[in-house]
Amino acid sequence: MHGLHRADGESLMKEAAAARERSYCPYSGYAVGAALLAEDGRVYRGCNIENAAFSPTVCAERTAFFKAVSEGVKSFKAIAVSGGPAGDPPAACTPCGVCRQVMAEFCDPESFEVFCLDARGRLRDYLLKELLPEGFGAAALPDGEGE
Ligand code: THU
Fold it and tell me: Which of 10, 61, 110, 145 is catalytic?
């Protein structure tokens, strides 16, 4: 564990599992839920939402981030991800590369925590910097640092 206690990670993972029940995944049959913990203690839930045209599909993690940011919340501590074949208990599931990049837009890679289950169902806790080493960010752009 990093900054949060194991119990916090476990309770965030329970919220992610509850969010997973809302997954809309008729094409892949792979259901994902996420629970994003904001700095102020609020939790934003998200699920994956698929589309017949495929590319409009959005992952659970981005649903959670976009819900929070669209409500004016941009400081976050951690996210838990619960995913696997729909109807089955959660399996090992880590965030896709696009979602890692979205996390990097809003979160400190040194302290933001990502909770996932491993293949044995154990809770794993990664720092964002471990999941997205050498990531691209606003600092590389000519006009600087973003907000
Ligand atoms: N998916 C997520 O929502 N989050 C992940 O971390 C991995 C993948 C979704 C996208 C798609 O709806 C389905 O899972 C299969 O890729």
Answer: 61
Tokens of 97: 């590369």
Ligand 1 in reach of 95 Cβ (< 6 A): yes
C-alpha 30 – ligand 1 centre gap (Å)? 7
Q: Are 11 and 18 in contact (CB under 8 A)?
A: no
Instruction: Give tens-digit pLDDT for 47-75.
Output: 999 999 999 999 999 999 999 999 999 99
The number of the ligand 1 atom at minimal distance from the alpha carbon of 57 is 12
Distance CA 60, CA 65 (A): 9
The overall pTM is greater than 0.85:
yes
Q: Tokens for 34?
A: 């996420």
Q: Return the H-helix or E-strand segment holding 98.
A: helix 97-106
